[in-house]
Amino acid sequence: MMLDDLLTSGLEGHGRMPYQDARDRYAELGVDTDAAIERALGTPLSVHCWQADDVVGLEVHEEALDAGGIQATGDYPGRARSGGEIRADFEKAATLIPGDLRFNLHAMYAETGGEVVDRDALQPEHFETWIDWCDGNGWGLDFNPTCFAHPMVRDGMTLSSSDDGVQRFWIEHCIACREIAEEIGERLGPCVCNIWIPDGRKDATVDRMGPRARLVEALDEVLAEDMPAITDTVESKLFGIGVEDYTVGSHEFYLGYAASRGCGVCFDMGHYHPTEGVADKISAALPFVRPILLHVSRGVRWDSDHVARFNDDLCAVCDEAVRSGHFDDILWATDFFDASINRVAAWVIGERSLRKALLWAMLEPHEPSVQAEYAGNGHAKLALQELRAELPFGAVWDELCERADAPTGLAWLAEVRRYEEQVLSDRG
Ligand code: RNT
Ligand code: ZN
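A: This is the predicted complex of the input protein with L-rhamnitol.
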């Protein structure tokens, strides 16, 4: 079979492997596939807007700006260049992704009608179009202050800057963002407002305490006002390009901050040492910090933001979220960007992989494994984990897609190709 035939036929999966047989097979192990499908479909995934345009945003910049160590690479044609194009692309992607969705905006996607509005002066009205659009489509909306790609990032610092004017600007920006998020939350239901800052140093940092003490003070001021429609989270990172030696908002910093202040924490799967997984952090943090927001992405060497895949890391995170018994305290967002492939396809692949991994976790025969663990039967436990790969998972996934009116197999690729030919190819 040649690629072109595959793309045309789409190799629809549904109906090839009878769902009933798969259901029976799982039922023998005590797993209810119908309940798993329903639960997986009903888990909202907050889809990041920034995959559509390579984290460029909608502001007008006169100078080239440093993105604070995050960088999209590649020049595949069809990048969205306006709010309208981002919305059109997402509407397309959403038809190809099964299950409940939310949308996740950054402040740099304000629509100010040509007027220059600096980030410390942003208002809910600048996001009116986004809010109405989500409302009309039945999607919740989440929000993020944009503390990078701006001339007020000085010496790589924002909220932790030793320059009072710089720090003040970013405090005002984050407060403005919380007010916007509160408005979103009042209109569309609880809005997650996630703070990530790039602050750090390239080499041989000698004052590690100062910036962290300033960040605590700044965050306390930002979060001072009680805003009931927002869920606040703070996101750590290990390093970024040009910020290799020291990151102010490290994992320990934010975990301690969130635990002591009662806000949520965000674990980005690309923000740890390459052999350090996020999965085990879930049950370690849950007794002290809730909710946990996951930024699902895939780290590859220096890059923390490759398109998410159904790989061991993602399956382990989903397994742990389900096994923890606190699934409702875990929020799912994606955070990846790849400018070297069709951007709508990148979205579809990443979101489908997350939904798939959630279903995979929900189909685990968990009870017998726990029994084996407590009975000291380690080999039975290993065997049960191995068995998961032998079960007819594909048939259940196809059924999930079918129930959500989303394509199975590779059928969505043909849709993306059509969209590329009809819409994306016209973009300069
Ligand atoms: C950066 C963080 C952060 C950003 C987005 C754009 O390393 O992961 O979440 O990717 O806010
Ligand atoms: Zn992230």
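DSSP finds 15 helices and twelve strands in the chain. The radius of gyration is 22 Å.
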